[in-house]
Amino acid sequence: MEEYGSCVASNPSTWQHHCHELKMKVANCTSSHPVIQKIRSSCSKEFVQFEHCLRENQADPTSCQPHIARFLGCAEAVDLSGAEATIETPVPQPT
């Protein structure tokens, strides 16, 4: 996730092209994670607005900072108590 964010910041006018592979890796990694699913469902409006802003401001993604701030604020406020319980913890196997 950090690598993707750095890529976007380092390529303000071409991030969609240069960072596409990293974007797909992040999407694949997070799509099945229960905590991420909970945040995506609870904050979908904020996330869609952020994505729309990025599409409309490809040459200046920093103009979308208010949108990402709203999304992050929403994500931090999501009650994750139910989602965290569904994360599978590996069980040690006897050797």
Which helices and strands occur, and which strands form pairs?
Blueprint: H1 2-10, H2 15-18, H3 20-30, H4 34-42, H5 44-56, H6 65-77, H7 81-84
Helix pairs in contact: 5-6
Descriptive overview:
With 95 residues, the protein is mainly alpha-helical. The chain has helices spanning 2-10, 15-18, 20-30, 34-42, 44-56, 65-77, 81-84.
Give the termini distance in whole angstroms: 35 Å
Low-confidence stretches at least 5 residues in length (pLDDT < 50)?
A: none
Globally, the shape reads globular
- Helix amount: 55-70%
Query: Strand portion, in percent?
Result: under 5%
Radius of gyration from CA coordinates:
16 Å
Kindly name the structural category: mainly alpha
Number of strands: 0
The biggest beta sheet is recorded as: none
Provide a count of the helices. Answer: 7
Question: What string gives the helices and strands in order?
Answer: HHHHHHH
**Average predicted local confidence, pLDDT:** 82
